[in-house]
Prior knowledge:
Helix content: 40-55%
Radius of gyration: 21 Å
Bound molecules: pyridoxal-5'-phosphate
Oligomer: single chain
Amino acid sequence: DSVFNHVVRAPEDPILGVTVAYNKDPSPVKLNLGVGAYRTEEGKPLVLNVVKKAEQQLVNDRSRVKEYLPIVGLAEFNKLSAKLIFGADSPAVLENRVATVQCLSGTGSLRIGAEFLARHYHQKVIYIPQPTWGNHPKVFSLSGLSVKTYRYYDPATRGLDFRGLLEDLGSAPSGAIVLLHACAHNPTGVDPSLQQWEQIRKLMRSKRLMPFFDSAYQGFASGSLDEDAQSVRLFVADGSECVVAQSYAKNMGLYGERVGALSIVCKSADIASRVESQLKIVIRPMYSNPPIHGASIVACILRDRQLYHEWTVELKAMADRIIRMRHQLYSALQERGTPGDWSHIIKQIGMFTFTGLNSKQVALMTAEFHIYMTSDGRISMAGLSSATVPHLADAMHAAIT
Ligand code: PLP
């Protein structure tokens, strides 16, 4: 008789569970549009050329050892990551007002940031957009924050519910933390315009709301690293505090290397250094210190002009391919005369399209067409190719009509 007999089976993760179901399907035409990972036109995972070059450099460097990194990770990686998101000429970076620590990709950065805020920030409530990435509520509540939502998406327009957003943030308690997707909102693909970001900033600063940016797709939305960082830079430019979680999973294709960074922008170098000392207290009992390989790859690329340039070219190619898939899917639905307005497919940005398909329609597409996606109708455009667009369009047409 086992002492674990009472343990009941937990449900699959709603996003990762899609891949589990996909893997079990023997159909040759099956298509996985669930997971947020880039695929080539051939449907294959992609290791960036520039990543291979950096790894070659690391292998050739005989002086490299496998010693522990410090608790905060690789110092050069941290500095370069801050410059990447805030801009090389950012006063906050130049004045050493940013505490940056290397974390386990985007998720780990969010978790460390949330744990720090739960211990050291006076307001314990965090507002997250409705809807948002499914892991957000769990990360924040397990960190000790209380999670509330603000209106974000309007199903009627398949666009931003800007008025709802302003109303909900406007009635949030003073000092509340607000989770913002820096760009390419997941799952909706709907972002505020720059003018709307400025209005959000003004409202948030007037109410002393604390911005907590999740930047999982820098460069993936527009193809430009600077353009996709504009929302964050707008907030940092006014001199007040903010928190930013960065991931290199998508934009460098380093998914399984788990490389990311948490930055806390402070008002002085002295405060930043005290904040960093407390981040170390959070990190040490969780995993002691982060892994060395992924951060070394990133540092290699960010420090070298030529490699950095090559990265921007490869990144733009990924972003452009995703945009092409949007246009191809839109045209394919037009050709089939699928009822409804599908222009949101080309208006939404980033890795995902929030199709507007309901869970019943999704179930039909899975059962009859072997197409896998989350039940909220979110499809990963990065998992599509010119070869598979017609199959998806057929399935969507069948599900609608
Ligand atoms: N935040 C958002 C909005 C995401 O979509 C993802 C990944 O899908 C993450 C964070 C975290 O990704 P990772 O932990 O792999 O960097």
